[in-house]
Amino acid sequence: MAFPHAGGSATYWFPLSERLTPDIETLAVQYPGRQDRRAEEPLRSIPELADRAAEALLARDDRPLALFGHSLGSVLSFEVARRLQAAGRTPVWLFASGYPAPSRLRGGDVHLRGDEGIIEELRTVGGTDPVWLENAEFMESVLPALRADYTAIETHERGDGVLDCPLTMLTGDDDPHTTVEEAKAWGEHTTAAFDLRVLPGGHFYLDQHLPEISALIAASLKGITG
Question: Catalytic: 74?
Answer without folding.
Answer: no
